[in-house]
Amino acid sequence: MTLARYARDKRPHIKPVEKIQLSEDNTVRRIIAAALFLLLGGVALAYAVIQMFTSESGWQAIQTGASEGATCGEEFNFQYELGAEGQSAAAESRTLTRLYTQACQTAYRLFHTEESFEGVINLREISLRPNEVLEVDGVLYRAFETVQEAGDRTVYLGPVYARYEDLFYCEDDVQLADFDPRLSQSVAEEYAGIAAYASDPGHIDVELLGDNRIRLRVSEEYLDYARREGIDHFLDFGWMRNAFIVDFLAETMMDSGFTHGCITSFDGFARCLDSRDVGYGLNLLEQREGSPIQMGTMEYRGPMSLAGLRTFPAATGDERRIYRLRSGEIRTLYLDPADGLCRSAADSMVFYSRTRSCAELALEAAPVFIADALEPTAVQGLSGRDVQFILCWDERLYTADPQLTVSNLREGCTLLRF
Fold it and tell me: Which of 24, 67, 210, 385 is at 20 to 30 A from 356, Cα to Cα?
């Protein structure tokens, strides 16, 4: 026999349901209330739809669409003047948003060093397939061309960046030793060993084969070393990454006829697209007592590329590339390809040009800024390559540009030309 047969019914006693007849007046009032709520909901929905497809003329921030998947849009600020030439601001906004979103998604995937994407040959895929001929997007091909023309080897510090960047996620100085070569001799030796391979084209180099075909050539010696050390991350544009991306975003907008704006990355790279007689400004910052202070505003008009390099936090996102120790020392992403150590000859410099791209500016700035001290001849030689600079130092602004205009000069700050 089963216990169920003899189990006592423990369900609570419930009174029978009583049927209540509602009056006709109550029913009518409920129908009217429901209709009113429905009407209000429809009005709210219509308003939301109108707002979605209506944009006001004037300066607006163009943002990436949230439904298109991961993009690099959060690292950039795209300010654009909608309806400046009588176009529909709403239509212009929709087109710009779609174009900008697609470009940010493309850049995100191409320059990604840790994730692969179906049908995309990006930096991750190239690192995973050394000594193999691959066809890449023209954006990456031109990036490698630009690097090779400059003779810069930063892109080959991929294994160092893969480990070093974890430093910026440390919550206390005691955690730095696993990543910081200035605090750990073993880490310093590891980075120096990788830098020795990275600086030698005989061990690693990207061969440009034409028609967007490349081959990441890696020597057997370096491959053996990489296998022993668990390295599968050979390429990384490091601190210059957003310089290449902002160039791509700017060129995409200009090629489609959108030129009434400026795109700026959180880490200091900017492309002004505007050929009109419209004034733009860049705040010039210096670190004083641990805080960024505005020394003045650089004013300019017309298309311009800018690269603002600084060693102190001044924008959202800087915690991913700048770490301040309790001692006051600073760690940054500005790594020297010679040994993998971060260096900076100044706290703040701005490089700008009307003819050079942001990537070209970064490559020109690298040997000047990533150094133990400023070399006057190196700084002065920039103007001969159509690159101007502003050095923010000890409440002084130094420049060799005779046409530079600085407004809102901070009291006590001096503009010096040489």
Answer: 210
- How is residue 371 written in tokens? 């150094």
Q: For the segment 92-122, what is each residue's pLDDT rounded down to a tens digit?
A: 999 999 999 999 999 999 999 999 999 999 9
- What is the token pair recorded at 299? 């004013």
Cα distances (Å, whole numbers) of residue 325 to 160, 291, 329, 409 = 20, 15, 5, 31
Burial of 269 (0-12, 13-18, 19+ CB in 10 A): buried
R_g over Cα of the chain: 29
What CA–CA distance (Å, rounded) separates 336 from 49?
52
Encoding tokens for residue 393? 């130092």
> pLDDT tens digits, residue range 31-59?
444 444 444 444 343 333 333 444 689 99
Burial letters 398-417, b for 16+ CB under 10 A, else e: bbbeeebebeeeeeebebee
DSSP string over 63-128: ---GGG---SGGGEEEEEEETTTS--HHHHHHHHHHHHHHHHHHHHHHT-SS--BTTB--HHHHHH
Cα separation, 400 vs 319, in Å, equals 32
* pLDDT tens-digit readout, 264-273: 999 999 999 9
**Is residue 62 within 8 Å of residue 97, measured between CB atoms?**
yes
For 197-228, letters b (16+ CB in 10 Å) and e give: bbeeeebbbbeeeeebebbbbbbeebbebbee
Structure tokens at 60: 């607006």
135 forms bridges with which residues in the sheet? 213
Distance, CA of 181 to CA of 166 (rounded, Å): 13
- Please name the amino acid found at residue 352: Y
CA distance 158 to 123: 10
Report the alpha-carbon distance of residue 12 to residue 392 in Å, rounded: 81
